Each structure stands twice: as C-alpha cells, then as structure tokens.
Queue: 3 jobs
Job 1
Amino acid sequence: MKFVPQTTVAAVVSHPIQHFAPLYRAVNDRNLDLRVLFLSRAGLDRYHDRGFGTQVQWNSDVTDGYRHEFLADLALRPDWQQPNACRRAAGRVWAALDRLRPECVLIYGYRHTFNLAALAWCRRRRVPALMTSDSELLGRRSTRARIVKRLALPPLLRSMDAFLTIGDNNEAYLAAYGVPRSRMFRVPLTTDEAALREAMDQRDIHRRAVRADLGIDPAALVALFAGKLIDRKRPLDLADALRELARRPHSPQAREVVVVMAGDGQLRPALEEAAAELDGALRLVGFADQRQLPRLYAASDLYVHPAQRDPHPLAVKEAVLSGLPVVVSDRVGSVGPTDDVRPGRNGRVYPVGDVTTLAGILDELRRGPDLLAEMARESEKAIGDIELAASVEGLLRAVSAVRSPHGRGSR
C-alpha cells in the first residue's frame, strides 16, 4: 500500500487513554507523522474514579513512544459546566492545528467544543477529517434525544471525510444516520497485546498460581468479569445466576462454576454479602490494573459481561484476544459476525437481566467441555480481525483514501 511520504496526522483527544496508545505507537513505523493533541492530563496523573470508587492511574508509559503535547488541562466534566475553559481549549486546538498544518485530522466524537473546533478548522482549511467513536443503537434513548439526533447528526456526519469504525454495531449506527459504507474503515480498539500474549504463553503457570491464591479448585469452570461494580454493569446478575445454578440438579460430570470479579465500585458491599452467601462461588479480587488483568484472563475459562449498556467494552476484546469464550447481554455493543463476540461461534448472547437464561448458559458450558473448547478455538480464529495489525491497516487505508486525488479530502 502506497502513501504520501510523511503524511502528518493530528489526533485531537480528550486525555491520555491506555487503549489508544498502542495504535499511536504502531503507526510511527508506517509512514505517518502522528501528532497527538491532548486537552487534559486526566488518566496520566492519579485521580479518583467515581465508578470504581478508588484512586486510578494508568501505567506511566501511556504517553511514551509517540509525539504528543498537552494543549490544556480541562476537567473531565460537561462543557456547560466549564464554558470559559472549553472556549479557551477550542482556541488552542485551532492554533495548534494552524501551527502543525496536518494533512489529516483525527477527531474522537462530536460531543465536546474542542471536537467541533477541530472539525471547523478542517472545513476552513480544506483538510480531511476522520472521526471515530463507540456510538451504537442498542441503548434506549428518549424521544427528544432521538429527534435531535435525527435532525442534527446527518449534516454533521456528512462534513466528515471518513470514519474509523470499531465494530458491527458502530457501523450500523453510522449507516442509520446516512453514512455510506464506502466511508467506513474498520479500526478495532487496541490494547496492550504484548502483555496478553506473554500471559497466554504462561497460561498454565498463571492458572495454577491464581487459582491457588484464591482457593479455587483447579478443575472448576472459572468465569471472569472485569469492570466497575455499578448498576449499569449489572454485576449482581452474576450473583443471581449463581444462585439459580445452585438450585439446578448437579451431576458428577458438571464442573463447579466460580465467578471471579475484578473491579470496584458502589455495589461492592452488596456483592460481598452475596459472596458470603454463595460459599466460594463468587470471588471479589478488587480493582485490577493492566499488569494484573492478563493473569486473570489466563486463569479463566470464560468471560461474562452482563451490562445494561456498554458500547464496546475493552475487557471483552481482551478476553477474546486471550482465547476465551464470551457470554454477554444483548446490550453489549461488541457483538456481530465480524466483531469481538460472534454469536453461535465464540460467544453466547442473552437478554439483559434474564438471569435464568444466563444461568442456563453457564450450566450448558459447565456440562460441555467440548463446546467450551470449540468456542475458545473460535475466539482464537477471530484474533486476526481485531488485533493491533488490523487496526493499523484500517487507519492507513482511511488516510490513503481521503488523501488520494479522488478522495473527499481533495474537495
């Protein structure tokens, strides 16, 4: 694939985010001069995450390996709560783009003033704009929100030159608002694949060590959940499913099911009560960072995500990259024939909140080692479509398309 030498791409991003960094680093060797413009230091410095209910700080290397600068230090609050700061930040975005003069600009969504400022700069300077987001149609929206989106989004999206999509539901969302498929380029969300591969290379070691640390039978079927322990994620559904499972007839061939939860949040006290009642079937391990999670994936047989709404959870992707079968609710956005969770292949999907169906799936998998193994093989087959290499190629194809003489960026 040929590209204009040293094409400069500016990415306008709210703050350093752990799972964006691998893509930024990877394109450095692929003829793109990437400049990342951050509007906040949130995530780089230690901060209190209200969802997790604890202090959080990403690994210190989140900004290593690519060119970047901080244009402002906005608080991660809605624009209307800090209008003056947002106006100043928008002005700094415009000034930085004028200074850098990129041939292409990557914009993350359209919610913030600085996003719209970057788009306005592109239109004024006749520079191609790429947009990426995790929007999907699964979540329930008010009638007013649907009407506003139907009126406002199509003209806004038409002003973008191309879209970096993250999955099937994301593409369905864009198509519903009039974006042609020819302007969509699949760029799956990225993560620290090296850490996952290293953990998988030592899977047996981690499996024995983690299970020994938690007092879990080596033969048990371990289902992992990783995320905030909040209402939207519905972790209590897993406790209810375990109760339902305990009431079902138990055969000697059926494995014990143990759910391991990695995370923290407001529901932790309720989950601790449930864990005490469930006599070892539910284990809470607290917040786990990017160094600890790979060991938990390696020690597990299955990943479960029961969320009420989750556009494209990174934990689901990491589970698939780790070769795990996945069970998710029908409100999780990473489901589709070419996405992370492929129903009937590496995944099972159930109606959100339907604890009986969730328990039935767990019961089926604990009784069917061959089925579980086949689902794991299907996850391994999906890796090539969702790994970092696919993300890099998708970004390069998008840049090539909008920079070509016949692309929209030539208008």
Job 2
Amino acid sequence: MEAKKNPRVDIYRLKNVFFNFGLMISISVVFAVFQYKTYENATVLDLGSLNKTTNEIIEIPPTTQPPPPPPKIQLPKIIEVANEELILEDLDLKLDIEMNEDTKIEQVTFEEDLETEPPEEEADKIFMIVEQDAAPVGGIKAFYAYVGDQLTDNYPTAAARMNIEGVVYIQFVVEKDGSITQVQAVKGIGGGCDELAIEVVKNSPKWNPAKQRGRAVRSRKVIPIRFILRQK
C-alpha cells in the first residue's frame, strides 16, 4: 500500500517562488551598492568676509596755463660819435672843366656791322628736317615718270621670272649743288630690283637742294620705288 503525501507538506512546490524572491533581493542589493555615494572628509576653508571698497571718481577741474612771456629783445646801444672832418687823401679829382665855344666833344663810335651775316652751317652736316625741302627739277611727277620708263625698259630678268613685285625704299643725299650721292637701298625685295633702283636714282637728273635760313644745305631723302610686272 503506497503512502500518500499531503500536498501542503511538499516543500518543492514553492521552490520557484523562493528562487525569484532571492533573485530580486540580490538585484536590489547590487543596485543599492552602485547607487551609494561616499564623500571625503574635507575641512571647510573660511574665506572670511569681503570688504567691498569703491573708488570715488574725483573730477579735476581743467587748468589753464598762462602764455609764456614774450622774449626780451635787447635793443642795440646807440653810441654817439663826435663829428670828424673827412679828409680826402690822394684823390686826383678834376671837377672843374672849362668849356667854351671852341671846345670839341669827341664823338664815340661803336664799330658794329649791321650787315653781319650769320655763321655758315657746317659744310659736312646733313639735315633731316629743313625749312625748304629738296625736290626734283621739274617736279616729283616728272621724276617718277623718268623712274617708270627706266623700270619698264630694264625690269630684272630674275625678278620677272620669279614674279617678284613690291616696293624698294631708296635713301640718298641731295648735295648743295643738287647732285645725288650716298645712294643705298634701306628696304628691298631682291631679284635684282634693289640694284636697279639704286642705279636709276644715281643716274636721275639733278634736284633742287634743300634750304635752311635761305642757304642751300645737304639733306637726306628716302623715296619708294614700286616694281610692277606688266601683263603681256
């Protein structure tokens, strides 16, 4: 016959309750330990009482300084000098001049040639700017008509073969007598055109020389000579 246990006497039926209750107490204790605050023992420093002092602002009235006294001007002392007779010594003065009807006054003449010509300009000086410019005899149109005839009859063969056209700038000097010297090409186009332009200007008729102060002077000129191929 099996013995029956009273369910109220069985202690194992409440083990879950006890376990949960113990767990709750443990957690509460741990939480309380972490939340507990400790303070170190420190002495309280007595700062005493602070006496508040205020600085009063005192208004200082403006002071005016008197202007400096004017500088003392020392007047020069006037020394009286006794009257003394002035003695003229070793002075040969002729103050008395006897004049009569026969006295002649020498006439002062100034040697001055009013027709003095201005000095001549330097013989070798070449002018770039003059009062009256040099020009070809018969005018500039006649000069370029001569140049055109020379270029048409003597157009360089090499330039014609290579179809060279353009402008050659010739520089030269017109002498006092109107002759042409120092002919050179300052800008050329090649193909024999430069040499031909120089020869044409060298052999050109005389020019009227430039004038400065009414006198013939040497002057430098630069003229263009244009080369144009004629279509056959």
Job 3
Amino acid sequence: MTLIWLGVLLFVAIGPIDYPGQPSVVVLTVVAIGLAIFLPSYRGGKLVFDRWFALQARSPRPSTRMLNNVAMFASLVGIVGITLVALDRTVLSGVSNSSYAELLRCAPGLVDTIAIKRTPLLYGGYVMFSFGFVSIVLFLLKGEEIRGWAAALGQLSIVSPIGYALLYSGRMPILFVLVLVAMAMLVRVAQGRTLLPRGHYLLLKTGIAVSLFAVYSSAIWSSRQSFCTQMLPLIAELEQEKNQRDASVAYDPAASGGIPRPKPAETIAATELNKRIVEAQKVQQAAPVASSADAFLPKMLMAWNVMPRGYVTSAIDSGRLSARGAMIGLSTYFYLTHGVRTIDIVWKARDKFTPQWGVYEIGVLSPLLRIYFSNSDQVAVMEAELRAAAIYGFFPTAWAAAFIDFGLVGAIIYVAIWGAVAGWSAAGSRHSGLMTPQLLLVFVLASVLLSPVQGPLGMANSALVLVSMLVTGLVLDFAKLRARETATPGGNTPAI
C-alpha cells in the first residue's frame, strides 16, 4: 500500500499531465492518515487470525469433487447472470443499448430523463453475474485440482466481466478482472507455487487478454470521443428540455410527511431517443469535425482543467508523438491518476457533503433507490453535492470515497476494517488451507492496487464480487470443517 501511493504521488508530480499544485499538502496529509489507519489495522487482522484461527491449519483439504462442483456452479451462475443482463439491456429494454450506454457516458445527468424498461431479469442477472469473477480467481488458485468441464467453464467465465464492460461501454470491469488475475498469481507465488497452474496455456491466454484490453481501451476511448462529439447538439437539447420540465414541475407539499419534494418529471421514451440519436448521427456525418492535437488540448484544458507538460507538447509539435497517440495516452493517464486531485477538492468542500452510507461506492444501490424508493431523494442529493464540488463523474480514490460515503468517523472505521480484513486474509492464506482467506486476499490486494482510483467497494460493482467471494469461500470452508469434524475421533456426541 505504501509503495503504491508513493509511486502514484510521484507520477502525479512529474507525469505527463500537469495537475496544478498537486500533490498538495492536504493530499499528502490525507494519504498519510489513511496509511496510518490501514497499516496498524493490517497488523491487528493478522494477529486475530494467528491467535484465534491458527488451528484451522490442520483442517483437511476440500475434496476434489467438492471443489470442482463449486467451481462449476459459480461459473454457470456467472455466465447465466451476464446473459440475463444482456437479454434485458439489448432486447427487452426498448432502447439501443450501445447508444444508450454511450450517451450516458457523455452525459450521465440524463439517466433519469430516459424511460427504459427494466425487467426482473436485469436484477436477477446483477445478483448472479459477479460469480464469474470468483470463478476465474478460484480456477487460478486451484487450477491443479479443478479439471474437465469445471476448468473449461472457469476460463469461459471471462465473459462475465467482458460482457458487463461491453454492455455499459466501460473499461473498469475488464481492468478489475485483469488485476484480480494478477493478484491471484501473486498469492500463488507467495505460497511457493508456480505463477499459474500448469497446462491450459494460461500464460499465453493471459498475454492475449492483456493485449486485447489495451486495444479495446484505445478503441473505446476513440469511439466515445467521436460519439460524444456527434451527440453534443442532442445532449444540449435534452438537457434544455430536462431543465424546462424541472422548472415547470410543481412541488407536492403533501409528500413525505409534509416535506416538499418535486413531483416526478416526464421522461423521454426509449423509441424516441433511438430516433433522435440516429438523426443526430446523420447530421454530424454530413459535416464531420476534424480532430487534431490543436483541437484536443483546449478541450482537455476546459474539461479537466489540466494541460500536458512541456515535454509532451514538444513531442507533439516535433512530430515524435502523434496527436492520436497523445490523446489516448494522456486520457488513460488522467483516468488512472486524477483521483489525487479529487482528494484535495473533497477536503476543501468537506462541509458540503453528507454521508451516503454506501450509495456512492456501491453502484447497484442507485438504480434500486431510483426505481423502488422513488420518494427518496438520497441519489438526487448525492449528485447535487458531487456537482457542487465539481467532482461528479470523477474518480475519488479510496480515501475520498470513504469520506463521502461514511463521513470522517465512518471513514476511519471503514479503512480500519479494510486493513483488518487484509491482515486476516494474508495470515489465513499463509497458515491455513481455508479458501475464504485466499479469495479475500486476492480481492483486497486488487483493491489496494486500485485504491488511487476507487474504494474497495466502488470498482465495477466490486461489492457484489466481494459478496460472491465470501459465499463461495464459506461454502467450501463449511464443507471442509464438516469433513474435519467427521474425521476427528470423538467429533460426534457419544450416546448416553
């Protein structure tokens, strides 16, 4: 954790993008306090396992049959889950999923303006698809014992994160699963095993996956920039219509015990949105906008309030670096490092934030609140606070996310629990054969590596992945403990 944050702060200080005044004294102080909470909690978590659970080291290994059955079940659940999500989004929703997802990436504030159909399949799929992440990790950790169909399905489970990324026009789900893969390798090495299970050509497949992700990341960024440029006139129209509807909506003083709340405004039908997107694309294709470094850099300054450093501008001007290459490289660098500046912004606006109790990080909660608790204004209040602080749509880092979700005291507790789980799982993976600590350790290591971007519960619905890992690990360990009780003499209560 310490090395990762020292590296990130150094990259922000000297990297290709100039973040004015960053890392600031405020950022350095917040990071230092966060580490001062996390690291002792890590030691405490290790001590708890060593003292209370060390006897589990003598527990028998789970049967190969049980391990294969659980791995196969997790794989199938994940694959079925992402299939249900895809069916709802692409067929039953009534909207062109690719255009809808891209439009919300360009203008996330329009999410409540567009009426799309949501069926129970979507929510069922959300509960299930995260098991695909677990299946991949479980296969990598126990690939020597997982064979046949279970091994094939474990590798096929990569469709869950890839499908999720494609459906929502994102990159983080794929990045997250690749980081999980890397952390599973690290756990194997720490246990004195090979980097990957032998056979299955896993090293080659991993290299191909990383290469394809690099290509996909570049392609989706270019596609998003082009689409957002084409949709600028339509986005302006939709936002103007939204503002007019909001201004004309009367307040209902009888709602929620006399507390005035705005009545729901009318929304745009999905079929109408599809037609307007097609029309906007036709207009823009008739008059294409040329893109160049000269056009990109001012947009970068306006949107992000940053500029490339002199050595980057010089490389572009001299022709050593292409405008397209600069755009992709700088945007990716900004994507992964701008959270440091967010810490500073959040601290300066700290009095304007109210605790969100997980709604900020756990992405699945926002749509559930919008649909099933429409009288609640928590999502609207949260978005208003984020917009007022000018961080809406930006990554917060683990430290800022903890504060936004739980306040100052809650953030301290949150980081302490995170550190304790890290220590507990590290000790458990080293001193016992239990699966829950190993799965948790992979997750925690991934969350530590990605902490400059998001909190442990905020990465591509990682909260659901965490729950799936806990369920899978506990099922295996419960079977393991039952086997130990059966095998231990005197484990059964004698008849009197």
